[in-house]
């Protein structure tokens, strides 16, 4: 596996522009109520932008298949072919339902890494995740014990620990356990990536994201968590007999917990543009059309651990 190219001043802005044009295209349909039209417009715009980037590119993680939505196809090649071998994990609109309803929290998002860096999730659609900026937490540990550990690390009581969980029946026990431990629980319907960024950044206003959500979002999140110097563990969590069979046929083990360095095994760029207003904690919301790069050092062009969220 090679590292990302050092000339980020040439390449990173081109990938960021691909998220920007996707967001602009999707923005024309915000509030339309048509999820597929939002996704379709973003996919077409992003695909066209990626075609001209001087890389030998490959899509390895995407979101559309899980949602039966328009998508960049897994294994799809992009770029001119005259450059470094690059893999991307991508969601042309994360929060399609939010955009279609005219609600905040939708973004065009992409993670860019050297060939082979991202965990192969195969046909998996769902993943159990733990994201925090507190190191050493274990996905397999009881949630109450995890909350106690975070409280000790922050010097607060359990009521001062802020936990986000996606509000789905599959996460009912995690929600109950977090509340029983005395933590402050933020439930959300959509916006998994947004909450994980808030938990991973050093000055974030969340301490922990826990529960089962999308597997593609998990890989996208891992790139940002790595760049921010945060902590993450995850495992595949099939939610149907059909998914369980597909995962087993692909030779993947849902019981195996993956650490951050396996989810994203090399420094990566995490790039996104807001479709609707997005909140990432301190610093105020990101307005529609505004872009952010995580993991790109504009001085030297290299991805770095401990990076902050900032404009490219």
Structural account:
The structure is a single chain. It is globular, with a radius of gyration of 18 Å. The strands form two sheets. A six-stranded mixed beta sheet has the order 2-1-3-4-11-12. It is of the alpha+beta class. Helix 1 (8-27) packs antiparallel against helix 2 (35-51). The protein folds into two domains: 8-116 and 266-294, 2-Layer Sandwich (Fructose-1,6-Bisphosphatase, Chain A, domain 1), CATH 3.30.540; 126-263, D-Maltodextrin-Binding Protein, domain 2 (3-Layer(aba) Sandwich), CATH 3.40.190. The longest helix has 20 residues, at 8-27. Helix 6 links the parallel strand 6 (162-166) and strand 7 (184-188). 33% of the residues lie in helices and 22% in strands.
CATH architecture of the largest domain: 2-Layer Sandwich
Number of strands: 12
Q: Give the termini distance in whole angstroms.
A: 25 Å
CATH superfamily of the largest domain: Fructose-1,6-Bisphosphatase, subunit A, domain 1
In which order are the strands of the major sheet placed?
A: 2-1-3-4-11-12
